[in-house]
Amino acid sequence: MRSDITPGQTSDYLGFDLVMDDNLPEPCILLADRGYDSDKVRKTMEARSILPVVPMRKSRRLRVAVDRRLYRLRNLVERCFNKLKNARRVATRYDKTAESFLGFIDITSIRLWLRHLST
């Protein structure tokens, strides 16, 4: 998992480059919501041989099909965010610096992962 902080008013696809750096393992599918529906994101993913499974925005002129069976898996990601937000410190962002906030997200993720391994 990779996380980064952008300003609250920043659109999702503007933070896309921060999260999808080349130093990560190469995914084969990008599951994302409508906030990532842009031609730039789609072209970047297709150039890297990654299947973008992103529903199109209502204002998109060129219609793009989405594999609904794959898109349903995005629910797992949303549930992970929900579990991360159960940590009150993550949900309310008590930390003053970005480094300490991202560090606590990492700690919470590790705790969730260990809990998952023990079951």
What do you see in this structure?
The protein is mainly alpha-helical. The chain has helices spanning 16-19, 39-47, 68-71, 74-85, 88-92, 98-118, and strands at residues 29-31, 51-53. Strands 1-2 form a two-stranded parallel sheet. α2 links the parallel β1 (29-31) and β2 (51-53).
β content, as a range?
A: 5-15%
Residue-averaged pLDDT: 83
Biggest sheet record: 2 strands, parallel
The geometry reads as globular
Q: Counting H and I runs of at least 4 residues, what is the number of helices?
A: 6
Order of helices and strands: HEHEHHHH
Oligomer: single chain
Distance between termini? 20 Å
Instruction: Detail the poorly predicted runs.
Output: none
Helix- and strand-based class? mainly alpha
Order of strands across the main sheet: 1-2
Percent helix range: 40-55%
Rg over CA atoms, rounded to whole Å, is 16 Å
Number of strands: 2
Number of folding domains?
2
